[in-house]
């Protein structure tokens, strides 16, 4: 199956590639983070990006690109289908397992993705200084200061584009 067919199937099937553990679900309820009428339940959920993001990645990612993301989900599958090598940083091992299972279902080679199962604030500083990234996607922990740290540390690895 080619990358276009894989992405079409991904968008059509819209799989649940995220996971809420029992403790996290209970914390959300205890702290009333969500409205009372929204029930948070443990298990697999879908927090996928807008399909337009997947379509945009299809436009910009080339098959020789090396890519990186903080967070994971549908974008991980898209990067794996489009790029030659992808790094996904996500401390949630269960989610990474769901993604790997789905990749196998689509016959995407698992060796295209390196999963770093730790927080981005610690994983990014350990990256090989010579690791060059063509495209990065920041969608991991959304709380301050994580996105800023992600931007800062990823910037060291982005290839410079001639203008």
Task: Give the CA-based shape.
Answer: globular
Number of strands: 6
What percentage of residues falls in helices of 4 or more residues?
Answer: 40-55%
CATH topology: Rossmann fold
Total helix count?
Answer: 7
C-alpha-based Rg, rounded = 16 Å
- Taken as a percent bin, the fraction of beta residues is 5-15%
Give the end-to-end Cα distance, rounded to a whole number of Å. Answer: 35 Å
The major beta sheet can be summarized as: 4 strands, parallel
Q: Report the top-level CATH class.
A: Alpha Beta
Report strand order across the widest sheet.
5-4-3-6
Characterization of this structure:
- By secondary structure, the protein is an alpha/beta fold.
- 42% of the residues lie in helices and 15% in strands.
- The protein is built from 7 helices and 6 strands.
- The chain has a single domain, classed as Vaccinia Virus protein VP39 (Rossmann fold), CATH 3.40.50.150.
- 29% of the residues are buried.
